[in-house]
Amino acid sequence: MIKGFALFCFLLFPFLLFAGQDTVIVRSGHIDPQGIFKLVYVPVEVPVGIKEIRIRESYTYGNVLNMGIYGPEGYEPGNTAGFRGWSGGAKNEFYINGSSASTGYIPGKVKAGTWNILIYPSNVIAKGLDWKLEITLSFGKTESLFQVSPAQKVVNHLPGWYRGDLHMHTLHSDGKRTQQELVNEAIDKKLDYIISTEHNTNSANQSWGKYDNDHLLIINGEEVTTTAYGHWNAIGINTGTYIDWRYAPEDHQVEKYIDLVHQDGGLAIINHPFYANLFLFDATPFDGIEIWNGSWDKDDERALHWWDEFLQHGKKKIAIGASDTHKNNPYDNNLGQPQTVVYAGSLSRNGILSGLKKGNVYLAASNNINLSFTASCNGKKSKTGEVLNTPAGQTITVSLTTSFIPDAELTLHSDQGIIARAASSEKPAQWTLKPGTARYIRIEIRAKNGTMLALTNPIWLNN
Ligand SMILES: [Zn+2]
Ligand SMILES: [Zn+2]
């Protein structure tokens, strides 16, 4: 009896002591400059009966310390069950409870066990980085649990050209808009689809269903952001899928994560390969390249040349263009500028993803640029992404029709460089080619100052 009473006290006492109260744990440390880009896990024991965990981070000025958290299910790379959110360098404080969480984090029960806070320095000044974490555990009962609300998968069943943006951020990472603001703006700009790509978190994907409407398709994604080795977009992933970023090129892990994206029916796209930190992973397993990120600039020009080299080696990579918008600001990357226009069998997740894979895709600076680019030979006609058989002795007829684009120059490119030109007034443009003179053909439309206005994926010519 005494033994039983002691056990009863042991179980009940901590709860009685702390019910309705908070307990605060402080952890601190120092990171030398050599510690840049090294993962540091700070373990915290969470007792039974906690309804909310809250973390406040502080560190010495001049440094950047990114932050995320893993639950008791574990934190080893690839452990999706353990992942509970990431805010990178965008927040200094976050919370998680049963029914809600800070943006970037996954709401749900705060289970007892060992949690791990991940801190990851992406800038460390010469005298180092002193950091402190204040962890507040609030005792109490979880009253209600967050319900996942995935985006609808179909908006309509009509085949056609659909315009969309494949790269954007909200408050769920370092963007400044709410999800609702982003959706409203996409509808105002007459986009047909958007792909949600927050840095290293799938938290926004858990609630896109709340913003479903009859005009706009929302597709899940994630920007896999390795500050040290470059960024890539996992687009079309399932709501529950989380793509880990914690590996270096020499670990040879990226293929495994691209496989996960493919298993969900999605695509892996290399982002802004020449922006700031270069893209250091092997490009071979990736499906496409974001060759146009925001306003056209010299980094995009380099990305275009890099992509063209893949084409010259017969390697099919889909070229995409996207805004990478973070805020609604005339000086920032604007939603829908540029946009990726894809021919799809329906305005649906599967339709858009399969259209992108086929490569019947062009990129446009804005909504008012439409184009149609085809090549025909021997009674057959092919569109971008397709292969046209061009037997010797036949003639290839290439034609391009565009909406009115004032003062633009249209150029026809192949593996031999520019092979034909036209002014925008001459429309539709038509050229003839001999079989065997080009392995692929594609179009660029530029303003007089060289700024890109539109760009197609290639039509492949098989001799
Ligand atoms: Zn990026
Ligand atoms: Zn981005």
TrEMBL record:
SUPFAM superfamilies: PHP domain-like
Domain of life per record: Bacteria
Signal sequence region: 1-19
Polymerase/histidinol phosphatase N-terminal domain ranges (all copies): 164-228
NCBIfam families attached to this UniProt entry: CehA_McbA_metalo
Keywords linked to the UniProt accession: Signal
A GO MF term: 5'-3' DNA exonuclease activity
Name of this protein: Polymerase/histidinol phosphatase N-terminal domain-containing protein
InterPro entries per the UniProt record, alphabetical: PHP_domain, Pol/His_phosphatase_N, Pol/histidinol_Pase-like
Record-linked PANTHER family: EXONUCLEASE, POLYMERASE_HISTIDINOL PHOSPHATASE N-TERMINAL DOMAIN-CONTAINING PROTEIN
